[in-house]
Amino acid sequence: MATKLDKVDVVVVGVGWAGGIISAEMAKAGKNVVALERGEHRERSDYIGQKDELKYDSRYEIMQPLSSDTVTSRSELDETALPIRTREQMQLGFDVGGASVHWAGATYRYWPYDFEMRSKTIERYGEDKIPEDMNLQDWGITYEEMEPYYDKWEKMAGISGEQDPLAPKRKNEWPNPPLKETPALKLFKDATSNLGLHPFQIAAGNMSQNYTNPDGQTLNACMYCSFCTRHGCDFSAKSDPLATVVPTALEHDNFELRTRAYVRRVLYDGGNKQATGVMYVDEETGEEFEQPADVVVLSAFAFTNNRLLMLSGIGEQYDPETRKGIIGRNFNGQYNSAFHGARGYFKNKRFNLYMGAGALGAAVNDYAADNFDHSDLDFIGGGAIELRQYGDAAIKSNYIVPSDTPRWGKKFKENSLFYAYRGLHIWYTSTVMSYWHNYLDLDPNYTDEFGDPLLRATYKFGDNERNIGKFGVEKCREIMEEMGADIVEEDALPEEFDHVYAGGHYTGGVVMGDDPETSAVNNYLQMWDVDNLFVVGGSAFPQFGSHHPTPTIGALAYRAAEGIEKYMNEGGQLAKAKTKSHKA
Amino acid sequence: MVDKDQNKGHTEEPENASRRDFLKKSGYAAGGVAGGLVLGGLFGQFDTAEEGANSDQVEQLQNARTFFKRREDFETLAYASERIYPEDENGPGAIKLGVPYFIDKQLAGYYGYNAKTYMKGPFQPQKSGEYGLQTKLNRGEVFLHGLRKMQEVSQKDFGSKFAELEGEQQDEILRKFEANEIKLKGVQSSIFFELLRQTTIEGVYSDPVYGGNKDMQGWKMIEYPGPRMGWANEIDAEEFLSKEPMSLKEYQGGNL
C-alpha cells in the first residue's frame, strides 16, 4: 500500500531543463513545490577528475542504465517491436539535470517558419506541397510570442554567441560574446563566405567568459577541455540545470528535491478531469508513495511523458489504423535521417582536434527553415550546416579514416594513425517531419522491473527525410571542396531507419497546438482535457524544427511556468481552442 | 629485433605470445630447441637486465586473467586482437599494449555481465545487428562462444591452434567471423567479431588504468595528449601541437 503524503501546490516529475526551470520559477513564486527525480543528485565534484573517454563516450556512464526499462522499436505496423537493449543504441539522460547535463550546448532559436510550418508552407507554395501522409501542423504559438521566453532562457543559461546574419534581428545581444575561433572554424567560414553563404559562430551553452545569471548563479569561462558532450562539466562552464536552475530552486525552503523517486502513475480523477497527484516508488527502499498536488507537471524526457500518460489512462491513445486519438501521435525526432553531410581529409594539415568544447563551431543558415526557395525542391524544411569542434579523444580520433580503409589490421592502423586530426566533418541539422504512421504506444510484450509495459516506438522515414538528407549532403560536399580537403567523401544516407536512437533528439507524442483535434496541450503546455496537468518538454514538438532542440525546450518551460502561475491564480483553460481540423 | 618491453617479468602471457613471435621470427622454434626450460632460461637473461623497473613490475602484478579461466581462450583472444591491431613500424600491437588484459577486465565487470543492458525476454538473437545487441548471452558469454569456435575452426581448417597459425591464416578465420560465415549458438559470429574489434581498439586507446594502452604507447602513436584541465590558451593555435601524454592517474593528482 502506498503511503499518502501531504498535499503540495505543485509536483514536478523529472528535473532536467524543463523541470528545473519550472521548479525554480515556482519556488521563486513562493509555491510549495516537490520535484521528483528518478536518478541521483550529482554535483560538480562528481565530474572532477573524470576526463575519461572510455567511461563516458564509449560506455555512456551518464546515460540511463537500461536494465529496468528501455523503449521498444519497430518500423511497420504489423511488426513485433524489439527492445533497444544497449546504451550504444539508446541514449537517455538520467539523474538530476537529465539530458541537459550531457548536452553539447549548441543554441539556435527556431525560425518563425518552424513554428508555423503548415500555414507558411501553404502560404508560399500551396497546400499541394504537403504530402498526404505528413501530419504537418503549426505549434499554436508564433516566433514573436516565443521571443521573450527564448530571451529569458538564454540569459539564465548565459549563452555565448553572435548575431546570425540571416536570423531575425535580436532584441537583446546574446548575454556573452562568442567562443574563440579555431583554424578549422575559420576555414569553414572563409569557404562558406566564398560561396556567398552567411557563416557565423554557433551560439553556445559553453561560457566564453565568467558570468553571473539573473538568478545570481555563477558560471565560469570554458577551458575547451573537450570532455563536454556526454560528460558533465567539472568546471561549471557549461550551462546546465546543476549550475543554474536547480541551485536557484534549492535556495527556497518551499522547494524540495526528492531523488531516486521513480514515478509510475499520474493519479487521475476522470470524473472531474483533474490530476490529483502522482504515485512513485522510492528506488532505494522499494516503498510506494502517493504525492497529492494541486498541479501536476510532467517534465520528464519525451518518452517518459508519453508513457506516464498512457500508463495512467489520461487522454486518448493515438491509433494509426483509425488515425484517431492524440497521445503518442506525431512522434518525431532528429536522429538517423539528420546529421549527414561530407567528410574532408587534409593530407598536409593537422588541426588540434583533441581540443574543443561541445558547441564550439561555425554554421550557415542559408539552407535552414524556409530561408531558400523550395518551389523546385522535393522536400520542405531545412537546417543549419555546421562544423563542430567538440574535441575528440583517442578512440574517436582513431576511427576518422577515409572510407576505403580496411576496418582492422595493418592498413587500418596505418591510416588511423595518419588521418587522426586531419579529418573534418560538416553536416546538415535537418528538419524531421511527423507522419500518420509514426507514433508511440505501450508495448504488448516487454515490461519494466515493476511489470509495467515499456513504451513502443513505431518509426520510419518519409520521402521528405530522404530527400532533405540528399540535399544536405550535396551542399556539404560543395563546402568541403571549397575548404580544400584532399579527399572529400559524402556521407552514406540510410535508406531505412536503423533503430539507433543516438543523441537525444526524440520528440513529440504530446504535441502542442491550438486545435484539440490534433494536439494534446495548448500553447502553455496545459493539457486540453485536464486543466491542472502540464506536460512540458520535447514531447510538445509537433515536428522537429531546423535545429537542435534544447533552447526551444527551455523557452517552452518558461512559457509553461508562466501558465502554471496563471492557472493557479485564475483556474481553467489558459488558451482558446480553435478547431480547423487538418488531420492527414 | 627484440625490444625491451618484449622480455620483462615472469608472467606467462601475453609476453609469452611475443616470445613465440620472437622465436618464430628468429628461428629458435624452427630449430627445435623451443621448450619450457630453454625458454625460461633464454628470457631469464633479459629479465635480469630489467631489474629495477619497479613500477613496471607492479603494473605486471595487476595483469592476470580474472574473467577468462582457460588459458587457451585467453591465448586465442590475444592473437586475434594482435591481428586487429598489429605491431608495425609505428609501434606496438595489441598484445604489447596489454589489450587482452583490458578485454579480460572489461568482461569481468558490469559491461561483460550486461548489468546496464535490458535483459528481459523474449529474445530474438538473430536480430542482433539490425536492432543492436539482442542476445540472451551477455558479452562475456559471447566472447567465450566466439573464441572457442575460432579455436575449433582453426583446428578444422589448419589442424593447429589459432595461436600457432601464421598471421594470414588467422586473418582468414577472422574474416569468416566478420562476414558471419561461421555459425555460433545464440549469437551471430559477426556480432562477436564486432565486439572483439571494438574492445581491441578501446584497449589500445583508453586510459592505461583499464589495463591496455601500456605506458600510454597507444596515445603516443596517435599523438593524443590525454586529459588536461583545458586548452584555453592553445585552442586557437595555428600549428598542430604534439604533447607528451598525461594519464588519468597523473591528472587526478597521483595516489592518495
Automatic annotation (TrEMBL), chain A:
Species for this entry: Allobacillus salarius
Key word Oxidoreductase present: yes
Keyword Cytoplasm part of the UniProt annotation: no
Keywords: FAD, Flavoprotein, Oxidoreductase
Family: Belongs to the GMC oxidoreductase family.
Pfam families registered for this protein in UniProt: GMC_oxred_C, GMC_oxred_N
Family matches, as InterPro entries: FAD/NAD-bd_sf (IPR036188), GMC_OxRdtase_N (IPR000172), GMC_OxRtase_C (IPR007867)
Residue ranges of every copy of the Glucose-methanol-choline oxidoreductase C-terminal domain listed in the record: 438-557
Domain Glucose-methanol-choline oxidoreductase N-terminal residues, every copy: 150-332
Superkingdom per UniProt: Bacteria
Alphabetized GO MF terms: flavin adenine dinucleotide binding; oxidoreductase activity, acting on CH-OH group of donors
UniProt protein name: GMC family oxidoreductase
Upper taxonomic lineage: Bacteria, Bacillati, Bacillota, Bacilli, Bacillales
UniProtKB/TrEMBL annotation, chain B:
Chain segments carrying region Disordered: 1-21
InterPro entries, A to Z: Gluconate_2DH_su3, TAT_signal, TAT_signal_bac_arc
The name this protein goes by in its record: Gluconate 2-dehydrogenase subunit 3 family protein
